[in-house]
Design brief:
Layout (H helix, E strand, L loop, with lengths): L4 H7 L4 E5 L6 H16 L3 E6 L17 E2 L6 H5 L3 E5 L8 H10 L3 E5 L10 E4 L6 H11 L6 H14 L10 H12 L4 H9 L4 H12 L2 E3 L4 E6 L1 H7 L21 E8 L2 E8 L6 H5 L4 E2 L3 E6 L3 H13 L4
Parallel strand pairs: 1-2, 1-4, 2-3, 4-5, 5-6, 8-9
Antiparallel strand pairs: 7-8, 9-10, 10-12, 11-12
Length: about 325
């Protein structure tokens, strides 16, 4: 059981809150952010929502008033100076806050960290980390129950989005009996499960499927077809017209191919190469991600490698093949 009292003690005398999640925000980060903001407002707190990157189109339904805005260093300097406490969700790594993280560290604003990833950094005065939770949303749900929060539709649908997306629609190994219990409770409270699913999984552009087809045609295999990888170059994104946020989730593209143990997606970025590692569940890959200064879960991890695309591919694949020796 998580002891939430340190959080309540820490925030009791604070009034102005900044809530943030990681670069390229996903359903769990955004859903946790929205649900926790609604909870804090019930407590009479003032809450501002800021992220390093824009909210992807498929998750904008969580924020119909468009309260979540992008951090801008020059524009938001005065805002940061007015904040009493920062709460970061679904992240325990300063670098994954980008420039926003640099500004927060410099100002040494009191900070609470709530996350379900294996920590790679020390963030804040209060840390609530549970790598056994299916999602950060699962932790936020626990906190809302602990606080005796009056659940409203915003919280319910936001938390359901967290769990739905981070469990891969309840099919990943992080799905537990507790996960289903929470999902059932959210449904009993009126979660709009069909609408949430449609917004998240039936709302992509046709360009995304052009890109997906190219990736499937150009898959690379090794280690007796137990290792597969594919590459999203900047040129391919430009050709297909796919926005960066639409690539999220494609790291799961090949994990259901028979005999595959590990799949890797390489995404060429302006500042290096993003590497997404996925495992079927027999071979842990978080240590592999750690070798490239990354991290994450035992069977789903990632890293940002500051090398060109081809060098990254060659280096990562060579290291990955060692797991099959």
């Amino acid at each position: 059981m998580i002891n939430w009292e340190p959080v309540n003690t820490f925030i009791a005398d604070k009034q102005r809150f900044l809530l943030a999640t990681h670069l390229n925000p996903d359903g769990d980060g955004l859903g946790s952010q929205v649900a926790l903001a609604a909870c804090l407002r019930q407590m009479g707190k003032t809450v501002i929502l800021k992220n390093p990157n824009p909210t992807p189109v498929i998750f904008q339904f969580l924020d119909p008033a468009r309260e979540i805005t992008c951090f801008e260093k020059n524009k938001d300097a005065a805002l940061l100076d007015s904040i009493d406490v920062v709460i970061v969700v679904d992240i325990s790594d300063w670098e994954r806050l980008g420039e926003m993280g640099q500004e927060l560290r410099q100002r040494q604003i009191p900070l609470v960290c709530i996350d379900h990833h294996i920590p790679t950094d020390i963030m804040g005065e209060v840390q609530i980390i549970d790598s056994g939770a299916s999602s950060t949303g699962e932790l936020i749900y626990d906190y809302l129950v602990y606080c005796g929060t009056q659940f409203n539709q915003t919280m319910i649908d936001a938390l359901y989005t967290c769990i739905l997306t981070d469990t891969g629609s309840f099919r990943f190994s992080n799905t537990t009996a507790k996960t289903h219990t929470i999902a059932a409770d959210l449904l009993s409270r009126g979660a709009k499960n069909q609408q949430v699913y449609s917004q998240v999984y039936e709302n992509y552009s046709k360009n995304r499927y052009y890109l997906m087809g190219h990736l499937l045609v150009n898959m690379q295999f090794a280690c007796n077809d137990r290792l597969v990888w594919y590459v999203v170059s900047k040129a391919l994104r430009a050709t297909t017209g796919v926005e960066l946020w639409e690539i999220e989730g494609m790291s799961e593209l090949t994990r259901n191919i028979r005999n595959i143990e590990i799949s890797i997606m390489f995404t060429e970025m302006d500042n290096g190469t993003k590497v997404s590692f996925r495992s079927r569940g027999n071979i842990p890959i978080n240590d592999l991600a750690n070798k490239f200064n990354g991290g994450g879960h035992k069977f789903a991890s990632g890293a940002m490698v500051n090398l060109d695309l081809q060098t990254t591919i060659d280096t990562v694949i060579a290291e990955s093949q060692k797991l099959f020796i």
